[in-house]
Amino acid sequence: MMASIYKTIHILGLGNLGNLTAYYLAASKSAPVTLLLHRSEQVSQWEEAGQCIDVVTNGRSRIQGKFQYEKTFESINGHAGQIYNLIVATKTYATTEALRPLRARLNADSTILFLQNGMGNSIQCSPSFPNTDVVANNSCIGTVDEVTSSLFATPSERPHYYTGIVSHGVYTKRAFSVVHAGQGYIRVGAARPSDERGSSTTRITRDATPRYLLQCLCKAPGLSTSEESEERILHIQLQKLAINAVINPLTTIFDCLNGQLFDNPQRLILSRLLLSEISPVISRVFASSTGAKPDSEAISSFSIPSLEQIVLDAANQTAQNISSMRQDMLNGRRTEIDYINGYIVEQGAKLGVDCGMNQMLVRLINDKRKIADAEIPEIFSNAKHC
Fold this sequence. Notes:
Elements: H1 2-7, E1 9-12, H2 16-28, E2 33-37, H3 40-48, E3 53-57, E4 60-64, E5 68-71, E6 85-88, H4 95-99, E7 111-114, E8 133-136, H5 139-151, E9 160-174, E10 177-182, E11 186-190, H6 209-218, E12 225-227, H7 230-253, H8 265-290, H9 297-300, H10 304-317, H11 324-330, H12 341-351, H13 356-366, H14 376-379
Parallel strand pairs: 1-2, 1-6, 2-5, 3-10, 6-7, 7-9, 11-12
Antiparallel strand pairs: 3-4, 8-9, 9-10, 9-11
């Protein structure tokens, strides 16, 4: 029984990515999979789906039903057994509260892998499927700190954290049914909360618990998972953060497709002003976390010209796509701006970097504002020369 609990992979958050991951893990038969239903409406949806997950690939529907499930919102959950392997695929802003009922079941022998939309809602969607989510989880950078301070403030009780960068194209048909529109990959790497960054200390755990979860993911062929170094995963996350901090909010306030974003020169100047704040923030976050020197190749890739080129390339590659933040706004859903530009503002305040432009974007998005190009100089005071 203990061996089964130790090997079980629990999945919290059953949207696009949670369903896709659960399906392929179960299909690979590498580990038992338990779905954690954290909202009451998910129970009826799960019953209506026949307690199965349906994944459509190339027009072909494939159903997987080899799952256990638990209702984490019930009080009895606190008395359930320990969770050793947990994949979190909730919305970033819901993560801490979704994890709170599981707190007593997680400890230093547990491993949490964050695979989420949000501060990594990638705009790199499949060109053939404009509304397809392709997720790149930068959200972990801020979410890990939030989860740690709220739930795992004591280092000796803290789980091992990992984060994933995902390029699969996937969208939802209905609850527990997704279309795998574009084959991609998952890159997984260790993540540390801010109070551990820059430390070379490795926490001791029994057996090889963290490795087990990664091995199971790598054995699931449909996920195409591989492991990256902690430094490499952070570098990719921060580059993705810069892309998302420009394209997601700007396409939302200007109400345009990704490829239309820079049709007006004023918008390009505005993006440069945003990057002038983003560049020093992510450079210093990376340096403080890894010990990288200011003249290193990694730091130079965070220069304003380098980031601008990455942003332009991403916009061109996804020209016909609707950014995820704009989709959320159009559908009346809460956006994850606080975990994208809000993270930049928060880190800038800690580092003494003025991030007023990013703060303005946070305010505009939270106020559900759309603006015209002629309003740029007035709203963004630093853009008077536009």
